[in-house]
Design brief:
There is one protein chain. The protein has about 400 residues and is mainly beta. About 0% of the residues lie in helices and about 55% in strands. A five-stranded antiparallel sheet has the order 1-2-36-33-32, with no helix packed on it. Strands 23-24-25-26-27 form a five-stranded antiparallel sheet, with no helix packed on it. A hairpin with a 2-residue loop joins strand 23 and strand 24. The two termini are about 20 Å apart. The model has no long low-confidence stretch (mean pLDDT about 95). It comes from Halonotius terrestris. This is Transcriptional regulator. InterPro entries: PQQ_b-propeller_rpt (IPR018391), PQQ_rpt_dom (IPR002372), Quinoprotein_ADH-like_sf (IPR011047), WD40/YVTN_repeat-like_dom_sf (IPR015943).
């Protein structure tokens, strides 16, 4: 049943286990087509709601959890996490057009733990084709491995090429010409040792490679093309970079959440997301961690922060996001940021959907009782999925499982 409040209409999605103080893995997804608001749920269901009436238009079972949804010309691409690591295309009526089980390439899960399930982490669309990245993690005693493949699919689901390495892809982006595909790897602990590979989109062959050159296996968090520039977040040194899109040469870099001493501890935060458009770049950081160990009561001064910079890397404006961001939705220079809990501060006021104009920093905020974990945006609307949460030291359930769409 749909309801309306504070400029948003809401549809209840049923039951889901509440999140806890620490942010959980991706459990929900949402996309907008011309006709529908489409929601992917943890139990495998994909449901399309009519954008006007919010009545159910169609529903299907993806088998795996549809952790990512991408709208392409009225159809829906569902990126799965589960036994098969299944990716599938559904038409405007919800009928499956094709599907592909990535586990056939990256291997079947060696345990039933969520983190070790085959996972299609990202998809981007070109003209009459689709790019996707899938990964699988396994651990045997002290031995840890990643298996991954990047694909180019035709419109019928046929595979034009594969690019396979023993590292963990985290993000894809396609340049405006459609000639280059950037692949960011956040963990490199095997033979593959580059945090970023830019592939020729026709052949799947590497055009150039880049790496922050830091110790350890942490490398790149996100990638975003803007004209002749590729913006990159580095998990290695917690900085943001602008690279020449043709050859990978560095144009500039900025400190984001680099190691900083606070009350005798060295703390940092990962720059997890980047969006570049119209000569501007927005970088977003995540949770604070100590250099020594995993627990701290401290907070990095630049955790949960969005900073926008210009073409020279000079800061234009910044904003406090308040809590962890699973991912951003973008439409040109517009950013929609679902901000969930800050697990150390545990302030429910941080649960909000924040919309930013990249050039000006103008923002709008809509608060939720629960945590917004997924968002979608187009020229007309914004949609967000809210999940309930129980803080570990309170026991109170805040919010519900629902999808919200603005009423503009």
């Amino acid at each position: 049943m749909a309801a309306e409040s504070e400029g948003f209409r809401t549809v209840d999605l049923g039951e889901i286990d509440p999140a806890r103080s620490r942010h959980m893995w991706t459990r929900s997804s949402v996309a907008l087509t011309d006709s529908h608001v489409v929601v992917g749920q943890w139990d495998g269901a994909i449901t399309a709601f009519d954008r006007e009436s919010l009545t159910t238009a169609w529903e299907t079972d993806h088998d795996d959890s549809p952790a990512g949804l991408l709208a392409v010309d009225g159809s829906i691409i569902a990126a799965g996490r589960g036994e098969a690591g299944r990716i599938a295309a559904y038409d405007a009526d919800g009928d499956e057009q094709w599907s592909y089980a990535t586990a056939g390439d990256i291997g079947e899960p060696t345990s039933d733990r969520v983190f070790e399930q085959p996972y299609v982490v990202d998809c981007v669309a070109g003209d009459d084709h689709l790019f996707a990245a899938a990964r699988r993690y396994e651990r045997d005693g002290e031995t840890r491995r990643w298996h991954s493949t990047v694909y180019r699919f035709g419109s019928d689901g046929s595979v034009a090429w594969r690019f396979a390495v023993d590292a963990s892809p985290i993000a894809l982006d396609l340049d405006a010409s459609g000639d280059r595909l950037a692949v960011g790897y956040n963990r490199c602990m095997g033979d593959h040792d580059d945090g970023l590979v830019v592939l020729d989109s026709d052949t799947g062959e590497p055009a150039w490679r880049w790496d922050p050159g830091t110790a350890g296996d942490r490398r790149v968090g996100d990638v975003s093309f803007d004209g002749d520039r590729l913006a990159v977040t580095s998990h290695g040194d917690k900085r943001g970079y602008a690279l020449d899109a043709d050859d990978g040469s560095r144009q500039w870099r900025v400190d984001l959440a680099v190691e900083t001493e606070i009350d005798g501890e060295r703390l940092y935060a990962y720059p997890n997301h980047v969006h570049a458009a119209a000569g501007h770049v927005a970088f977003l950081t995540g949770n604070t961690y100590p250099v020594e160990g995993r627990e701290t009561e401290g907070q990095h001064p630049h955790e949960h922060r969005l900073v926008a910079v210009n073409t020279e890397g000079s800061e234009l404006w910044d904003a406090d996001l308040g809590g962890f961001v699973h991912g951003v939705a973008t439409a040109g220079s517009r950013l929609v940021v679902p901000c969930a809990q800050n697990f150390r501060v545990r302030d429910p006021a941080a649960h909000a959907l924040r919309t930013f104009d990249l050039p000006t920093g103008e923002t709008a905020t809509h608060s939720f009782a629960g945590i917004p974990t997924a968002a979608a945006v187009d020229a007309d609307s914004v949609a967000a999925v809210e999940e309930p949460i129980v803080y570990h030291d309170e026991g109170e359930t805040r919010g519900s499982y629902a999808v919200h769409i603005d009423t503009r």
